[in-house]
Design goal:
about 250 residues
């Protein structure tokens, strides 16, 4: 447990030192102000950007900083499991993402006078954030260099994260949605739409499928990619940096 807390503290130290926390706070305030004073902007689009893109960026920055600061070595050598390390990183990223969540809920109810189930909204928000944090870790593991990792992150964001935004704006035909279920962001977007707009446009079975698939994605990525290969990835990054310095 002490190692778990230490990892979270180290993450927040890096978030503060490299202005990640400050950036998230500024973006949260800007998005909240946009919700409140620009009614032509769909609030869901800002929510999508927050839970589909920010977690991936936070993870990429965190891993890059640890690689450059040589703090990957203690993680690789510690006696804690890979799952414990990942859980700590997921928790630290989620704690940061609570900032926009709280601001959005306040604005939606007090300024926009929206009516929806707050508990369901929070649960879907956390589920969406967790799966995108996990995806960020997976992309880091399968990338062999910082350059490839950056391309992987950008590629995921461009190809998959913009899909729910296009769907929300009616730019994607309804029949095409059955192909888009491979995108966790699209699945999360369906759930957000049903919470905010209502259970009108989408079949109940698709809502259930969206929840189940996201949970399956988290389980598969964690058990078959992160758990067996995360520490190997840490050692690879350490060796790569040592060779580069040499």
């Amino acid at each position: 447990m002490s190692r778990f807390i230490q990892i979270i503290k180290n993450d927040f130290k890096n978030y503060l030192r490299y202005s990640v926390l400050q950036t998230v706070l500024i973006l949260s305030v800007l998005f909240s102000v946009s919700m409140a004073f620009f009614p032509q902007i769909d609030p869901l689009i800002l929510v999508y950007i927050t839970v589909f893109i920010l977690p991936v960026i936070i993870l990429s920055i965190s891993i890059y900083i640890e690689n450059e600061e040589k703090t990957l070595f203690p993680l690789a050598m510690c006696d804690c499991s890979a799952l414990e390390i990942i859980l700590a990183k997921v928790v630290s990223a989620l704690l940061i993402l609570l900032i926009p969540l709280i601001l959005y809920i306040i604005i939606m109810f007090t300024v926009l006078h929206m009516s929806f189930n707050v508990l369901l909204f929070i649960l879907i928000y956390l589920l969406s954030a967790v799966i995108h944090i996990i995806i960020g870790i997976v992309l880091a593991i399968i990338s062999k260099s910082n350059h490839i990792m950056s391309i992987s992150y950008i590629g995921y964001i461009v190809i998959f994260s913009v899909m729910p935004i296009f769907h929300q704006q009616g730019l994607i035909p309804e029949y095409f949605q059955y192909i888009l279920i491979v995108s966790p962001a699209y699945l999360s977007g369906l759930l957000f739409e049903q919470i905010i707009i209502g259970y009108i446009h989408i079949a109940d079975w698709l809502i259930i499928l969206a929840i189940l698939l996201q949970l399956i994605y988290i389980g598969v990525f964690t058990m078959f990619v992160i758990r067996p290969y995360f520490k190997s990835y840490l050692f690879y990054r350490i060796n790569e940096k040592g060779e580069r310095l040499g």
